[in-house]
Design goal:
Layout lengths: L3 H20 L6 E5 L3 H7 L4 H22 L3 E8 L7 H20 L2 H5 L1 E6 L7 H14 L5 E9 L1 H17 L10 H5 L14 E4 L18 E4 L9 H13 L7
Length: 259
């Protein structure tokens, strides 16, 4: 059997080949990722659930570096959905404590100013704890003038909830006489979504880990013409090489936008 050292060598060679290969093609400008599989990863390690979430958070920190190295301008991460609020109070406390801890760490991360990363959160902020809302506000304020990279955090986010909120906003415009029903267009809807103020709201590539093959309400409107790649790895096991594999798959596809 090959030794760990030889396996590491093979991994490095394969990674170098992949890196050269994807540089010859178009790098997606916006990659959105459904971070799935933290709890199942913990189960495979016979570890407590919270260790899966912690390992997943570590992978997110590595992802920032990988995206900079590869040249991905925008990433949107599905961190916590509106449906996730159905989990037990114990798990919610664990998750929110971890999110708070990592947001505080992100505020101090020297890569934010060095790479010029603008951080934006999308979702139903009112459902979040005061501490997390304050941290997100601080991050957005601190990074509002950056334009090197864009990090969008989908938290307390649901695609159906976003569309419901969009419809309510448009209905209020009609009710107030600011808009006629026949004047409603696709652009009207786009301008009322959580992502309306983002630099590049529509992902070129959507990745989901853990082997599940569905969007689970993630960016339902925005991903209409995104390329979808589903990978078997649980999120804590996601590596730079997996990101490059997804990009290579993206590059092999022909995006026709219905034409």
């Amino acid at each position: 059997m090959p030794s760990l050292l030889s396996l590491f060598g093979i991994y490095r060679i394969y990674g170098a080949i992949l890196s050269r290969s994807i540089k010859k093609g178009e790098i997606p400008k916006h990659v959105a990722i459904i971070l799935d599989g933290n709890r199942r990863w913990a189960n495979t390690k016979f570890a407590a659930r919270k260790f899966g979430h912690m390992a997943g958070a570590d992978t997110v920190e590595n992802l920032l570096e990988w995206c900079h190295e590869i040249g991905i301008k925008t990433i949107t991460l599905y961190v916590f959905s509106t449906e996730n609020f159905e989990r037990s109070n114990e798990e919610l406390d664990e998750i929110f404590a971890l999110i708070g801890e990592r947001l505080e760490k992100l505020l101090k991360d020297e890569r934010i100013p060095r790479y010029g990363i603008k951080v934006t959160a999308i979702g139903r902020w009112e459902l979040l704890t005061p501490q997390i809302r304050e941290l997100l506000n601080n991050l957005e304020e601190k990074t509002k003038d950056y334009s090197g990279h864009y990090l969008n955090i989908a938290i307390a986010y649901g695609g159906r909830a976003e569309i419901v909120d969009s419809v309510r906003k448009i209905a209020s415009y009609v009710q107030d006489g600011k808009l006629k029903p026949e004047e409603i267009t696709q652009k009207t809807i786009e301008q009322s979504l959580y992502t309306s103020h983002l630099e590049n709201p529509e992902p070129d590539l959507v990745i989901r880990t853990s082997g599940e093959e569905r969007l689970s309400g993630f960016l339902l409107w925005q991903s209409a013409y995104s390329e979808l790649v589903f990978q078997d790895e649980y999120w804590p096991d996601f590596r730079k090489i997996d990101l490059m594999r997804a990009i290579r798959t993206y590059q092999k596809r022909s995006r026709r936008y219905g034409r």
